[in-house]
Amino acid sequence: MFDGYIVVYKFIADLHFYVTGGDDENELILATVLQGFFDAVSLLLRNNVDKRTVLENLDLIFLCIDEIVDGGIILETEANVIAAKVAMRGADADVPLSEQTISQALATAREHLARSLLK
């Protein structure tokens, strides 16, 4: 506990990974999220998890976080699934700029439609 929050952490080499939750959150779930995030990052960075590599691939790290949590709701904790989704999104970067903007617009429209249907 730290200032009313549950903090789960992991130290690897020169990096510190933290997952925080409210005092009513399950500590085991937070630990599962942290482990899934770390394992996905390890898969994407080919087990070369150090400060330099993480900074060079910060976009992949943010995509991992985006695949794991959305609006405070845990979506996925399985490292292989997270890494596969991030790898798919990273492959979209190879698309030419004119097509990428169309695909991004379609993805955004799809997300908005899904969110409006879930409300």
Structure characterization notes:
With 119 residues, the protein is of the alpha+beta class. The protein has five helices and four strands; from the N terminus they run E-E-H-H-H-E-E-H-H. The strands form two sheets. Strands 1-2 form a two-stranded antiparallel sheet. Strands 3-4 form a two-stranded antiparallel ribbon. A hairpin with a 2-residue loop joins strand 1 (5-12) and strand 2 (15-22). It is flat.
Total count of strands: 4
Helical residue percent? 55-70%
Biggest sheet character: 2 strands, antiparallel
Number of helices: 5
How is the largest sheet built, in terms of strand order? Answer: 1-2
Gyration radius, to the nearest Å? 16 Å
Distance between the termini: 33 Å
Average pLDDT for all residues: 81
Write down the secondary-structure element order.
EEHHHEEHH
Structural class: alpha+beta
Shape: flat
Low-confidence stretches: none
Strand content: 15-25%
Subunit structure: Oligomeric complex that consists of at least the alpha, beta, beta', gamma, delta, epsilon and zeta subunits.
Pfam family, one: Clat_adaptor_s
Subcellular location: Cytoplasm; Golgi apparatus membrane; Cytoplasmic vesicle, COPI-coated vesicle membrane
Protein name: Coatomer subunit zeta
